Each structure stands twice: as structure tokens, then as C-alpha cells.
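step 4 of 6: structure.
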Amino acid sequence: MSLLTLAVEAVPEVSFTSEANWFLENVWIIPLLPALSFLGILFFGKRMPKGGAELGIAAIGAAFILAILTNVAWLDHRDNFDGVAESKLHGVVEDSHGEDHGDEDDHASAILNVDGVAEDVTLTALAEEGGEESHPAVAVLKQREWLVNGGVSFLVGTLLDGPSVIMLFVVTMISLLVHIYSTDYVSGDRRYTHYFAFLSLFSASMLFFVLSSSTLQLIAAWELVGVCSFALIGHWWEEKPNSDAALKAFLTNRVGDIGLLVGMIILFFSAGGTFDITTINEKVVAGEISQTAVTWAAISLTAAVMSKSGQFILHTWLPDAMAGPTPVSALIHAATMVVAGVFMIARLYPVFWQGYAISGSSINGLAIIGAVTVVFAGLLAFVQNDIKKVLAYSTVSQLGYMVMALGVGAWTAAIFHLFTHAFFKAGLFLGSGSVAHSVHSFDMKKDMGGMKEFMPTTYKTFIICSIALMGIFPTSGFWSKDEILVGTGGFGVGAEAANGSYHLMLVMGLVGAALTGAYMTRAIYLTFFGEFRGHGTPHESGPRITIPLIILSVFAIGAGFLNFPPGFLTGSAKEPSAWQERFGHFVEPAAAYFPAISHSVPSWGLAIVASVVGLVGPALAYFYYFVKVDGLAKETGEKLTGLPNGLTTTNGLARTGHQVLVNKYYLDWLYQGVIVAAVKGPIAKAAYWFNQNVLDEVVNTAGRSSVRAGQFVYKNIDQAVIDGAVNGSGQLSTNSGQGLRKVQTGKVQQYAAILFAGATILAGIFIVLV
Amino acid sequence: MMLNQFLLLAAALFCIGVYGVLTRRNGVLVLMSVELILNAVNINLVAFGAFQDNVMGDVFAVFVIAVAAAEVGVGLAMVLLMYRNRKSIDFTEVDMLKG
């Protein structure tokens, strides 16, 4: 039994560490702010001068400031934790024979278990060698008992550690920028207030999600996020495709939600009836839960991740979700909806770590799903003419990277990629929205082209974010993608395979990198280069659109510098210096509820190979579009759409491949044509027959016999017995009343005579008896 | 001291009172009969008090006299109203509550 669990049981409100900063203790305020603004906008938004947008921006802005302060406090907390751990350690080593340390201090009691460990021990070593009883935990856990039922205590609260802290920052920042951007983008919309209300609720749900301390909270927030995405994707529901897309997103997610519920139920029972995430994780880490249960829980939860985070084969809703307003797409793809799945894996990582036996194997379900998604979604992005769909498939592909990273044990790399991806993908979506806002269309081939001249700011930020997405040195995408590739174990040459050697995933990751570069080059050419093919004169968007773009592109360049790999520029690869791996140090939980993952050591060779591969894709695409197609267009004087098709019309194999891609691997056909049609056709008919002939017959017979029984009861029981009793009692009252009224003469003296007679009789009885 | 005489006197007074209450038609006379009953009780109280050398009997008798005064006040007011409405104080005629 862990000491920390004991502490939780003893006092309902407990923090993992004894003294934590105010911001860390009261982090629940952050989701509360946008939640309140949701209600405020809903009830009073229409009466506000700006239609409720100002309240939404104020709330999320305040949440953003609080999130930054929380991050700063966490930084301090995290560093102090190390400091305390080490200084106490010295103290213990020095006077280990002397005093009895008090039990009140969590640090001290945690340290007592590592009595005698050498002084230069690092935190990881501390966690590994700390003995069975307790690990030091830096997370701030605040819980309250919500209710007790059947001996199970339902706790609600906030679990604040590295991943949730960084998600607070990402969600509030992207959400704030999206709010500001939206005031211009959806201005004049018929449901402007409604739109901002749901943006607030969306942000609140996601913040609630990342702070959840129990699996019940996790499920509730997960569903809240799903509902908000439904409302926002279907924002313009008057048009059928939009409401269809919203329904598709919602229903596809329901498929995965079954997995979520099943997984959480398995965890609840196998962990001995607790919803507490840290307890579940600790038990899994300690090996107190059977391998079978953990494996099945991991598989069920993977289904949930596949639908929520758009992994291959349940990704089909994600590109359709582009039907919503573009800022919503940015929010969904960068910070809220789709990263929920990745975050859930990160939060319950021991379950996946143990369930898939990630350490030491070379292939597992999670990694395979991720790797397949990386490549297949990357291919799909090639045949899209809608700029947002290119980005949507790109998101699917990048989410594949994150899931793959988690599958190969590169936890920090996955979170880091989530972090950097949020900025450049939000930048790309908002950039595409800026272009579309000006040409009133999303079709790159028909209505765009040559936008470079008209929209210089959008163009520049789009290019920067694309380069970051392609993962070209030194933008943020390079660092995070390289870390994922390193996490697969590298080539096994120069790099140390830490959690097994996932060579297949490495190859798929590299292929994905090349594809990413190529399809982004294609999208850039079609959008920004060549001749303008649309109508009217496009113009650059206003500052409320361009300033968020500029901020995001700054982050797209700079965010990667937070986590230089160990050995970069200075120091050896095995010992990070003070300014390397800051992100990992900041985010990775150092606690008993986190598995002992080991970190792969990066190598220059892999970084160079990845860079070269990442440049080959764009180079080929550049050659094809910027040189060949552009030259042909100038030569013939035709517009892009008028040009004869290339490879796909001349080569049969290429045509087939193209056809498969255009039809999205026939997955939609499979879902709608086969599964839905089967349900609608024969199965529905059989069900109808069964309904008419069997069920209806049963119902009718039951109905007829009820009528007969009712008639019998009416005649014999109701009329005879019950009515008889009622009438009889009435008759009795009447008769007795008639008899008694004779006594009631109204003459006072007669009453007095009766009174005295009665008194005399009573007195007589009294005398006789006594 | 002989208690019996007083008790017999009280019993006789009580019986006369009861007789008056039950047979008199005149409302004022009925009230007077009620006074006889109450005074019979007073005699009992004072007699027992003196017999047991206890002042409580006297105290109760004074209480009863006070209550009787109030009762007569109310009763005479009712008789007066009866007379105003019906020009009669005959109790046998007042039987509007007959069932």
C-alpha cells in the first residue's frame, strides 16, 4: 500500500506535496471561468454590445493569464521539488542515525525510504530505487468526496502535473487566439452569440478534461468535448452537408465511446473499485492488476482514442468536420477535441505501457495504429482540393505520429509534438481561413492561386507554419518529430534503443515525413502561386486575423527550442546540460503513478537522415508543381484547371491508386454503403417482419387478455365488492345519523339533564368500584 | 368539629341547584341555580379546608367566587341578548340547534 494513497484516505482534501503554490492549489478556477462565461453569454449575450464575444474573450483571457501563472508556479514547484528532494537527502544521509523525522512532511517520509542512496542521485534514479513503499510525487492532487455509494467513494478534484499544466497553457492560448480571430471571421453571423457561447464551453470542457483526477470526470469531460464539437461543426446546420458532418462526427465518436466506457469499467473493477486516476495508475505500475485486465482495458481505450483522435479506420469524421467554421477547426485540431485522445493515453499511460508491453517489444497495437495512420492519412492529403481537408488529413497524420510515439514508449516526445503541433497547425488552419475569408471558397484549384500577391502576411505565416509542419530545421516541428523518430529506437547504430527497437515505425515515420513535405508543397503551390483563378479582387485580412497568425508562427519557430535533445551543441548525449530537455523535465511526471520509461539517446545520424528525407518530399513536389506544372501553364497559357492531367491519366497503376485515394480507401463506402445499407435494407426488413408478426402478436394478445381481465374485474370485484362496501358504509352512516339526531333536541336543559344523569351514573360506578 | 352538617348542607344546596337548572324556564333563574351549585361546592371547599386546617380550600373558594362572577356576567349578557331578539327569556323556546 502506497503511503500517498494512505494520505488520500485519511484526509478528504490532500495534496501530494505538502506545500504548493496558490495557483497550483486553486487550478479549478481556470475551467470555471469559461464555463461561467458560457452561461453568461447564453443568458445575456444578445444584450451585450458585442453580442457576448467580449465576455468570452475576457473569460478565456483571464484563464490564459492564470494558466501562465500556473505554469510559472509549476516551474518553480518542479525545480523546488528536486531541490527539496536532494537537500533532504543530504540531511538524511548526514544524520541518519540521529533524529526521528516527523511524519507530517510528505517529503521527509518519502525521503526516509531512500536512506543511504548516494548523494548525486537524480530524480529518476530516486524513483527507480526508492523501494516498494513509496515514490516521491510532485503532482498536486486536490480531491473532495462527491458522494459515497455502495462503499465506493466518488472523488472529484484536480490532478495537476506536467502534462495537465502544459495543456492548460496550450488550450487557453489557442482558444484565446481563436476567440479573437473569430470576432472578425464570423462577424455578422446569424448565430454569433451562440457561436461564442459554445467556444467558451468547448474550452471549459477541455480544461476540465486535462485537470480530471478521476476516470469519471475524464469520461464526463470527454463527452462534453464531443457535444461541443457536434454543436460547432454543425454551426451552419441549415445546409444539409453541415448537419450531416456534425452527426457523423458525433456518431463515429459514439463508436469509440463504447470502448472508453468498457475500458474504464474494466479499470474500475480491476483496481478494486476506484475511479481515482493516480490510484489506478499506481496499481498498474506496481503490477497489482492482472495482465489480462490491463491488456483488455488498453485495447478498449485504444478504440476510444481511434475515434476521438482520428486514427485510421475511425478517422473518417475528421475531414468532414471541416464543415464547421474555420476557427473551430483550428481549435478542434490544435488544442481541444482530437488531442483529447492522445492526452487520455498520456494520462493513463501505465495501462497502455503495461497492456501493450511497450517496453522491450518491437511492435504493438498502439504503435501500428499510429504508424499506419501517419502514412495513410498523408497519402489522402494529396488528392484533396479543399485546403482545409488537406490540413485535416495532415492533422490525422500528425496525430498518428503522437499515437505512434506513445506506442513506442516515447511519452515525452508525444506530448512535445502535441505541444508544437498545436501552434503550427492552428496557424495553418487560421491561415487557410484567412485565405478562404477573402476568396469565399475553400477550393484550391477553382478559386485560389497567386494569393501570395494579395495576402502577404497570411502567405508568410502560412509558409512558416508549413515548414514547421514539414519538420525542417530549426523550426519546432523538427525537434518534436526528430524526438519521436529517436523514440522508435533509431537505427540501433549510435542511438540507443531504450524501449525496444521499432524499426517498422521508424520507416513509416520517415515516409510520413516525406509525404508531409510533399502535400504541403502542393497545397502551397495551389494556394499561393500561379495565377489567381477566383472571382473579384482578394485582399489581406484585418488585424484581428493576422495578429493571431503572427503570434502562432512565432511559436511555430520557437516552441521547439524548449526541448533541445541531450547532447545538442554541448555535453554528451547521455547527460543533458542545464538548458537541454527542459520541456521533458517540466512535463514528465516524476511519480509512482507513471511507468519507469527510459529515454532513447538521440543521434546526429538519424537527425540528418530525417532532415534529408523530409526535404526529398518537398523537393519532388516542388519540381513537379513549381517547375513542370507552372512551366506548362505558362507555355500553353492555360489555367491550372484547364491543363491536361499528368501521370494519373496515362499510367493505369497511378490511376487506380488515385482512384482509391479519391474514394478515401472506400472507408466511407464501407461504413455507409455496406454497414449502414445492410442495417437499412435486409436487417431492417427482417426486423420489421419480426416486429409485425411476432412482437405485435404478443402485444395484441396481451392487450386482448388485459381487456377481458379488466371486464371481469369491473363486473365482479369493482361493482360488487368495492362499490358494495362503499355504499354499505354510506347507508350505515345515514341510518345511525337518523337515529342519533333524535337525541339532538336543541333544548339546553335536556342536555344538562343527560349530563347530570351521566355524571350520576359515573359517580355510582365509581362508588361501587372503589 | 362536625364535617357532616356542612357536607349535607352542600349536598342539599347542590341538589336544589340541579333541580333549578333542569326545571326552571326563566333564564335568570337558571343562572341563579347555577350559582347555588357553585356555592355548594364553595361550602365543601371551605369545610374541608377548615377540617384539615389547610388554607388551600379558602383560596380555591375565592377563585370559584371570582370565576362565578365572570360566568354570571357572560350569562346575563346572553340572557339580555336573547330577550332583545325574541322578547322572551324562556329557555325551552331556544331550540334552533335541533337536529
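step 5 of 6: annotate
 - Chain A has 31 helices and two strands.
 - The longest strand of chain A covers residues 140-149.
step 6 of 6: archive
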